[in-house]
Amino acid sequence: MKLRAACHILVYAANDCPMVAMLRPRSGRTQWIVQERYDLEPWAPVTEFADSYGNLCQRLVVPQGHTRIDVEVTVQVEPVIAVDPGAPCTPITELPAEVLQYLLQSRYCPSDKMLGQALAVVGTAARGYAQVEAIRAWVHANIEYRYGVSSASTDALDTLAHGAGVCRDFAHVGMALCRSLQIPARMVVGYLHGLEPMDLHAWFEAFLDGRWYTFDATQSAPRGGRIVLAYGHDAADVAFISDYGFEPLQIEEMWVTVEALDAAADAAPAGDAAHGAPADALPEGGADAPPTGPVPADATGAPQATDATDAPAP
């Protein structure tokens, strides 16, 4: 399945502002970059590096005033995602070394405090894929997709208490419940073909039977047509823009489009609306509309970051 995705962002900087962006996908076994364009106006010198998760990060200093960032990419992706209801858990002793980190609690996923909730959610489900699917289905049925409930500091326990959130929050709850059951889980952000309304999106993956499987609690059924931009422990690792200025960047415009360029899209399952009423892989080795006004400050005093999952589309 060949997809063309585009992301347009207009930012305003009161002063020159150091910034790191994660807006370029990378090629791997499950997605292959066919063509891409990454344009800045006005142009500023950019360096690129891979972070500890393998995400491609673009580092620059945004000049004072307005800067337009236009990214367009054509990618071959899988039209359907792998599903294996009988996949067992991988024993801890057999987990690859690089996967062990995804068993740990993190800032937004306090899994060390959620075992009781996880056991209640999975019930008698068989250990492995069936447990993760029970978690995904429970989050889908019991957490309302609603803007304005969560903030940059909302973690999985907060979302359970609120009973509502956006795609980032759905992923945090799913990951935290998985990790509490000693199932490695990681966060993924990117594009999803057919998402309504279209935007950057977040979901999670669980490591089972020696490989990663995709789970999206905003959707009622498995859906392919995904372009991965980044992955990590939680939203702190996958912000599409992190700025380091004394005055935060303001995002004044942002829009996202994803279109299918071949007939494979016709074979992919139709999707549900991911936002509002209940709606329904990353290259090996590996959110909703942006806020208007200043990028939200990190509650811990860390650099400010925009994760695209905390405000409604205009």
Low-confidence segments, given as residue ranges, are: 273-303, 308-314
* Secondary-structure element pattern, one letter each: EEEEEEHHEHEHEEEEEEHEE
- Mean pLDDT across residues: 88
Per DSSP E runs of 2 or more residues, the count of β-strands stands at 16
- Proportion of helical residues: 10-25%
- Structural class assignment: alpha+beta
- Give the biggest sheet: 5 strands, antiparallel
Question: Approximately what portion of the residues adopt beta-strand conformation?
Answer: 25-35%
Q: How many domains, as an integer?
A: 2
- CATH class descriptor of the largest domain: Mainly Beta
Spatial sequence of strands, sheet with the most strands: 3-6-1-14-15
* CATH topology-level fold name of the largest domain: Immunoglobulin-like
Architecture of the largest domain in CATH? Sandwich
Distance between the termini: 29 Å
Question: How would you concisely characterize the structure shown here?
Answer:
The protein is of the alpha+beta class and about 325 residues long.
How would you describe this structure in keywords?
Immunoglobulin-like, 314 residues, globular, five-stranded antiparallel β-sheet, 2 domains, 15% helix, C8orf32 fold
